[in-house]
Amino acid sequence: MDQRIVQFIAALRAQGVRVSLAESKDAFDAINEMGIQDREHFRVSLRSTLVKDANDQPAFDELFPLFFQTDQPPAFSNPMQNLTPEQAKELANSLRKFTQQLRQMLEKLMQGKPLSQEELRQLGDLVNLDEVSDMRFQEWKSRQMEQALQFREVQQALEELMEMLRQMGMDKDSMEQMREQLEGNQQSIQDQIRQFVGQRIMENMAQQTRQEKLDGLYNRPFNSLSEEDMRLLQKEVRRLAAILRTRLALRLKRAKGGQLDVKSTMRANVKYGYVPVELKRRDHTLKPRIVILCDISTSMRHCSELMLSLLFAIQDQISKTHAFAYIDHLEYISPDLNTRQPTEAVSQVLQRMPSGHYNTDLGFSLENLNRDYLDTIDPHSTFIIVGDGRNNYNDPHLDTFRLLTRRSRATIWLNPETVSLWGTGDSDMLKYAPFCSRAFQVSNLGQLATAIDHLLLNQ
User: Fold this and answer.
1) Does residue 286 have a pLDDT over 80?
2) How far is 2 from 390, CA to CA, in rounded Å?
3) Backbone φ, ψ for residue 279 (5° rounding)
4) What are phi and psi of 320, to 5 degrees?
5) pLDDT category of residue 396 using cuts at 50, 70 and 90
6) How far is CA 135 from the centre of its chain?
7) Rounded to whole angstroms, how far apart are CA atoms 101 and 349?
8) In 10 A of CB 350, how many CB atoms?
9) H or E segment at 335?
10) Counting CB atoms within 10 angstroms of each CB, which of 305, 425, 431, 438 has the fewest?
């Protein structure tokens, strides 16, 4: 049991739950005190010592039953007990017509036998289960193992067996009861496979270090991220933001001791006969002002959420941020972000403007910005657009975009699509790009962090 708990804690860490060595010791102390006989007391002991953040509760609830499955194993019944000795003998002879693999599987169902651990291990090796450390693949790997057991052929064979039993003279009620028992046994084997796959994936996750998983997520395209991936990356964003905040603060501090202001120095040193006793320096560097326009349609949502998370985590180093979201029209979301986390804020905005298929209209949203919020953009502002530049063949309103870029200090475009796709299909990216100071491809968090680092440190 101790080893199982260690694996469970490692899996929690792999899922992004922060568990220190001291908290691990607290968990073992609590279990020694409460015991493991009562499942609920055992679960509460682990949860109270290992989970400190409500956002980590879903990860705990998902992993616990996979590591500590104390429920009864799937139930099996024995349909053979309803047969007379003559019927059982004739049925056994009939099974010989099937291939060896099908016959073995049918015999398991007829006798109500589960798969052995060795059989499950062999099936896992067959589908390369040891290489999987992501719960999203549980159903897929389970289906692969069922295919290896020829479940579809088994279902057809069961129908043939039912016909054989009918020809033997078995009454309708007995046949129906046997059918239910055989199908129940097959379902129990499916449940056994799913449970085994889930436990093996969790064990694989426990062996994978959190940093290894983060390194993979850093370079994973935004459009392939799961909700669990996003939850882990949102925590990592806070660490990245701390690094960026420190670098920005140092830059601003150094800027205050920047270029010598000759005129101010001469005026200040008149009383010393123009001997430069007091040096005066220029400070033209101010905290950046940001106006950000984010596409939160289905294809862009993860990229926009992470971008907003980074910007609002370093607000103390930014003079002012005006945040807007758009799909088919514009929404001012700074008030939402001031009171909620970016993920919650975007979800709230989506309730007001739900995403649909092919309804993104950047051009119309730019018109909204020009008409209602033009005063947010001035020569001190950096205008940032986070989007793929796709308008669904609507008017891109290039004149409006040119006007907005001329009002800003700089215009930066962050696009998650590969450069080779810019300008293809309904993409107007190549039409917008000439009016931008810089355009970055940011298809993953690593590229996004690099772009923001460049953006804020070159203000």
Assistant:
1) no
2) 54
3) -95, 135
4) -160, 140
5) very high
6) 11
7) 55
8) 17
9) helix 334-339
10) 425
| Residue 143: C-alpha distances to residues 149, 152, 162, 183 (Å) | 10, 11, 25, 17
- Give the number of residues written for the chain: 459
CA 174 to each of CA 81, 161, 166, 180, 405: distance values in angstroms, whole numbers, following the listed order: 11, 13, 10, 10, 79
Reported confidence tier of residue 412, pLDDT bands at 50, 70, 90: very high
Helix count and strand count (H, E) for the chain: 20, 6
In this structure, are residues 239 and 309 in contact, taking their beta carbons and an 8 Å threshold?
no
Contact criterion met (CB below 8 Å) for 112 and 185: yes
Instruction: Identify which of 310, 339, 337 has the alpha carbon closest to the alpha carbon of residue 324.
Output: 337
Residue type, 328: D
Place of tokens 């696009």: 415
pLDDT at position 411 is 93
Minimal CA–CA distance to 382: which of 317, 444, 303, 437? 437
The CA–CA distances, whole Å, from 323 to 95, 285, 312, 382, 435 equal 69, 23, 10, 12, 20
Determine the distance from the C-alpha atom of residue 345 to the mean position of all C-alpha atoms in its chain, rounded to a whole number: 17
Coil, helix or strand for 292? strand
Sequence-distant (6+) residues with CB within 8 A of 38 are: none
Q: Which two tokens stand for residue 347?
A: 């979800």
CB atoms under 10 Å from CB of 76, counted, come to 17
Q: Is 43 exposed, middle or buried (0-12, 13-18, 19+ CB in 10 A)?
A: middle
Report how far residue 244's alpha carbon sits from residue 238's, in angstroms, rounded to the nearest whole number.
10
Q: What is the mean pLDDT of the chain?
A: 79
Strand pairing class (381-386; 289-295): parallel
Give residue 282's pLDDT: 66
> In 307-329, which positions are buried (b, 16+ CB within 10 angstroms) versus exposed (e)?
bbbbbbbbbebbeebbbbbbbbe
Torsion over CA: 236, 238, 241, 246 (sign): negative
